[in-house]
Write a structure and sequence with these properties.
Length: 424
């Protein structure tokens, strides 16, 4: 019988004979591997969840300029939110010069307070009302994306006192195309209904109308806006762009996908914002666990290894045998680790997370007035997916690591004479 066949036969029989120890080692390796690969999967899932509001708005940053005044209105009626004060055209246009910023769009956000009824208004740039006329759809960002989310009726025409209504709000108050609504001192005709795409509630409003008409309602100067939506060429430059924005616009709040991670809980911050750190720590802990499990297995094999040496096996042959066993256990454990991660991902994907409904620094102003309309809770699943390559690369990598550790630990255990090991 060839040496290779002898080693292979002995390897299989040893793993099956001491099946309890094999299961213990394989299970431990599987848990260690699962801990390492689950954290990056969670991190990517939370990052995708935090980026959802910005992805559907085709924007990377949202800017508002706040004030220190109270968010409660002194008088009823239409007002500019305290958390979104006007920004001069010259100032917000200068944001285009920031390195990495490729698109800037300004809008006007208004609140209307009335006894028992609150609604929000968003003024967006409208040209002729035809999206394909003098307008590139790829440049639509922020609330202007509602032009693509029209589900009934048509877009408003600038200067015609027309407005779009959000689907849920319109259904609650029986508003449909042709109906009228009074905003401030002006009566607007509903021209269409829009359905806000999932995750885009940070730019949502109950009504959408031409930006110049929104300015006129609150006597805002031409060119002024109070919400800015920015797109950058590379999301990794968002932090540097954020610092530049805050230098140009004082007392401004700049929100990005990273900011949203903190709203999803501690786990999201650890796995998303600090993914590299947590993964590195998990990797070190997993390596220590592998050493502990394999060291225990090698300790149990110490007497058998001494017997093998006593009957003629060389020290190198025994080390190869023990390291091969560790590599096989590592391969099986790595496969188990991927399976456990997949099962955990399937379970965690059923969890629902509430996405923010807006960027106001205060609580929902509608709550102060006992508004009859309550916006539906925006929830979405945490989508987790595994790279198909993990099913191949993880077991192979784990087998190599365990094989190397097995070779090293076997060398530690084989020190001394065979008879001394047997007697001990």
């Amino acid at each position: 019988m060839s040496p290779l066949k002898i080693h292979g036969t002995y390897l299989i029989k040893e793993l099956l004979y001491r099946w309890g120890r094999s299961i213990f080692v394989v299970g431990g390796v599987g848990l260690a591997v699962s801990m390492v690969i689950l954290l990056p999967v969670l991190g990517e899932g939370f990052q995708s969840l935090a980026q959802l509001p910005f992805k559907n708005l085709a924007a990377d940053l949202v800017v508002q300029q706040g004030t220190t005044e109270s968010a409660l209105p002194e008088t009823m009626g239409l007002m500019i939110p305290y958390s979104a004060q006007p920004i001069a055209e010259k100032k917000w246009n200068s944001l285009r010069t920031i390195e990495g910023v490729t698109e800037v769009m300004g809008t006007v956000l208004l609140w209307n307070f009335a006894p028992g009824k609150f609604f929000s208004v968003s003024g967006i740039p409208l040209n002729s009302g035809n999206q394909n006329e003098n307008e590139n759809p790829e440049k639509l960002i922020g609330p202007a994306k509602v032009k693509e989310w029209l589900i009934k009726g048509r877009l408003p025409k600038a200067g015609n006192n027309e407005a779009l209504v959000e689907r849920h709000y319109g259904a609650f108050y029986s508003l449909k195309p042709g109906k009228t609504i009074k905003i401030g001192s002006t009566t607007f005709t509903i021209s269409g209904i829009v359905d806000i795409r999932q995750g885009s509630q940070i730019a949502s409003a109950n009504f959408y109308l031409d930006i110049n008409e929104a300015r006129r309602l609150v006597n805002m100067k031409d060119g002024h806006v109070n919400q800015l939506f920015l797109r950058v060429s590379d999301p990794s430059t968002a932090d540097s762009a954020k610092a530049s924005i805050q230098k140009i616009i004082q007392n401004s709040s700049v929100v990005s996908a990273v900011s949203f991670l903190s709203l999803l809980g501690t786990l999201s911050r650890l796995t998303g914002q600090f993914q590299q750190v947590t993964t590195s720590v998990a990797g070190v802990l997993a390596l220590l666990l592998l050493i502990v499990f394999l060291r225990g297995a090698m300790g149990e094999r110490q007497r058998e290894a001494a017997v093998l040496r006593a009957i003629g096996w060389s020290r190198e042959h025994v080390r190869k045998q023990l390291s091969a066993e560790a590599a096989i256990q590592g391969f099986i454990g790595g496969s188990l680790g991927v399976l456990l991660t997949w099962l955990a991902a399937q379970g965690l994907s059923t969890l629902k997370f509430s996405l923010p409904n807006g960027l106001q620094k205060s609580d929902d102003p509608a709550a102060f007035l006992g508004s009859q309309y309550v916006a539906p809770v925006v929830e979405t699943n945490l989508t987790l997916s595994l790279d198909p390559l993990l099913w191949l690369t993880t077991p192979i990598a784990t087998a190599l690591i365990c094989g190397i550790l097995g070779w090293w630990l076997a060398g530690q255990r084989l020190r001394g004479t065979p008879w001394g090991k047997i007697r001990s």
